[in-house]
Each structure stands twice: as structure tokens, then as C-alpha cells.
Design a protein that fits this description.
Shape: elongated
Radius of gyration: 24 Å
Subcellular location: Cell membrane; Membrane
InterPro entries: TatC
Strand order of the largest sheet: 1-2
Main location: membrane
Order of helices and strands: HEHHHHEHHHHH
Membrane topology: Multi-pass membrane protein
Strand content: under 5%
Pfam families: TatC
Largest sheet: 2 strands, parallel
Distance between the termini: 53 Å
């Protein structure tokens, strides 16, 4: 029998070798995927209600959805169920992300994990909800360009793909402030650095909205781009408060060390 390996000491700062980081990342991804799968079961059950809500804008304009293959209705139900599962379990998979980052945080910083998870879930769902509110108006406006001599016969796959992609994209976009505050809490980026880039951030927010926004009008772009920009500045405010707290704590610690050194 070979010699037994000595027990691996746990790093007090939560650091681990690259191999363990990769294994932990794989574990968190698998747990997140399992949670989304469970949420997708709920999405499958709720699909008939969601289907009615998603098709309502098409019915309002007198249009029809066409299923072009035998299995397309089944495929679309799975697609919608998975997207709904992502939203239902947003707190779970965002939590897995923070648990992966947690070993690099101090004990005090780990106490903020629950707040990050709940805030991230609220932002993700809020972004999706805003897109959901915009989409019926988008369908109405975009189909209004159809000539009077033509009819709106929409392919179900393309319509549902358009609907779900816009919702997920805006949900992810609303997580930007969460990422900013997270980087600040990790000590990677200070608030002043974010503030210096505010012009680029606002420009990118409106450029993103102009591309991702399904509506061609200016007002919807202003609402969505303004919402993302507002969240950006709120995140900067939180980062400034965090920097002020950490600077005071560091100054107090340095003063204590200087006092101890002087006494020696």
C-alpha cells in the first residue's frame, strides 16, 4: 500500500489551486443546470397560460401562428419551459455563481452573498418583465407595416424565438450593476474607475438598446436605455459607499499598526 497523502490544509483566505477551481466551477455549473431543469418542469406546467399570453399580441392584430412541422409545437414548449425555468430559478443559479466566488471573500463579505443573490434575481426578473411589457407593443407596431392586401401569418418558431431572446437579453443586461458591485466588493475595480467611464457606459447602454430593442420608436429606446443607465449610476453609488467604508477601515488598521510599532 502506498503512503497516505497528508490532509490538505485549507487556505484561510479561501484560495485553492487551479485544478480545484475548475472542479468547483464544473460542480456549480452542474448544480445550476440541475436547478434550471427543475424550474423547467414548472415552466412546462405553466406553458399553456404563457402560450396564451405570448400569442395574445398576434391575435390582437388578427394574425395567426403557423406550426410548420409535426414536432414543432413540442419543441417550442420545451424552449419556453427552459426559458421560464431560467427565470424561476434565477436566485438559485445566481447563488451558485456567488458560491463559486465565495472562497475568495472574507467572512464578513460572505454575509453579503444573500443580498447579492436576491438583488441579482430581482434585477434579472425586472429586465425580463420590462421586455415582456415592451413586446406586445413591438408586435403591434412592427406588424402595422404589413400592407392592407396582405395577411400576418407568422412562423411559430421564429415568433417564439424572437419573444424569448428579447426577454433573456434584457434580463442579462439588467445584471450589469450586480457585476459592477461584485467587482468592487472583490477589490478589483474602484468606484472612481467606473465613474470615469460613465460616458462610454451610457453610450453603450443606448447602443445596446437600439440593437436589442424590438421597437423602432425613440421613446422605447429612451425608456430601456435610461433604465440601464440609471442602474449603472446606482451601482456606482453603492461602490462609492463601499470604497469609503473600506478606506476608513484600512486607515484605522494602519493607524493601529503604526501605534503598535511605536510602542515597541
Amino acid at each position: 500500500m502506498g503512503a497516505e497523502r497528508p490532509p490538505r490544509k485549507k487556505d484561510p483566505e479561501g484560495r485553492m489551486p487551479l485544478g480545484e477551481h475548475l472542479r468547483e466551477l464544473r460542480r456549480r455549473i452542474m448544480l445550476a443546470a440541475a436547478g434550471i431543469l427543475v424550474g423547467a418542469i414548472g415552466g412546462w406546467i405553466l406553458y399553456p397560460y404563457l402560450f396564451d399570453q405570448m400569442v395574445a399580441p398576434v391575435e390582437a392584430i388578427g394574425g395567426e401562428l403557423n406550426f410548420t412541422t409535426v414536432g414543432q409545437a413540442f419543441d417550442l414548449r420545451i424552449q419556453v419551459a427552459i426559458v421560464l425555468g431560467i427565470f424561476i430559478t434565477s436566485a438559485w443559479w445566481i447563488g451558485q455563481l456567488w458560491l463559486f466566488v465565495a472562497p475568495g471573500l472574507t467572512r464578513t463579505e460572505k454575509g453579503y452573498a444573500l443580498g447579492f443573490v436576491l438583488t441579482g434575481a430581482a434585477l434579472f426578473i425586472g429586465g425580463g418583465a420590462l421586455a415582456w411589457w415592451i413586446l406586445p407593443h413591438a408586435v403591434e407596431i412592427l406588424t402595422s407595416f404589413t400592407p392592407e392586401v396582405a395577411q400576418n401569418f407568422l412562423t411559430a418558431r421564429e415568433y417564439f424565438s424572437f419573444f424569448t431572446k428579447v426577454i433573456v437579453v434584457f434580463g442579462v443586461a439588467f445584471l450589469l450593476p450586480e457585476a459592477m458591485v461584485g467587482l468592487n466588493f472583490l477589490g478589483v475595480v474602484r468606484a472612481r474607475t467606473f465613474l470615469k467611464a460613465w460616458r462610454w457606459a451610457v453610450l453603450l447602454a443606448f447602443a445596446f438598446t437600439a440593437i436589442a430593442n424590438p421597437l423602432p420608436d425613440v421613446w422605447s429606446m429612451i425608456i430601456m436605455g435610461g433604465s440601464i443607465s440609471a442602474l449603472f449610476f446606482v451601482a456606482i453609488g453603492i461602490c462609492f459607499l463601499r470604497d469609503r467604508y473600506t478606506d476608513k477601515r484600512r486607515a484605522r488598521r494602519d493607524a493601529e499598526l503604526a501605534s503598535e510599532a511605536g510602542n515597541e
